[in-house]
């Protein structure tokens, strides 16, 4: 069993800082809305994006599906009263030349074995799609 620990602090006005995994980042903990720093809802969506992209890499290696780049856009729909994330929608694009059947298998593994995806799926509806990017990219393939 794995255990995760982070530390965070905020100062008056809501500027906050998180320390995790040997690095740190700032976020908005104010009562309003900061124009620059991510707020907690954006951090939640970022955690989902990070989980999905981590599993792109993990299952690229396990399934031997080479890719050059992966991009994801994640949108959250928030209910106002009471406040909660009502729905999350993502679009994952991968620059790869694998066949569509393998792309769908890759997608199933990415979602099925994600810590954050499985946690959020217990609380919110997540809708997502995977597609191939335009392959006109001169980068070298990441795997075989």
* CA-based gyration radius: 17 Å
Kindly state the number of beta strands: 6
For the biggest sheet, the summary is: 3 strands, antiparallel
The helix content is 25-40%
Mean pLDDT: 93
Structural class: alpha+beta
CATH superfamily of the largest domain: K homology (KH) domain
Molecular structure report:
With 144 residues, the protein is of the alpha+beta class. It has helices at residues 40-63, 100-112, 115-121, and strands at 7-10, 15-20, 23-28, 69-79, 84-95, 125-132. Strands 1-2-3 form a 3-stranded antiparallel beta sheet, with no helix packed on it. Strands 4-5-6 form a 3-stranded mixed beta sheet. Strand 2 (15-20) and strand 3 (23-28) form a beta hairpin. Helix 1 packs across helix 2 and helix 1 crosses helix 3 (115-121). The model is unreliable at 137-141 (pLDDT under 50).
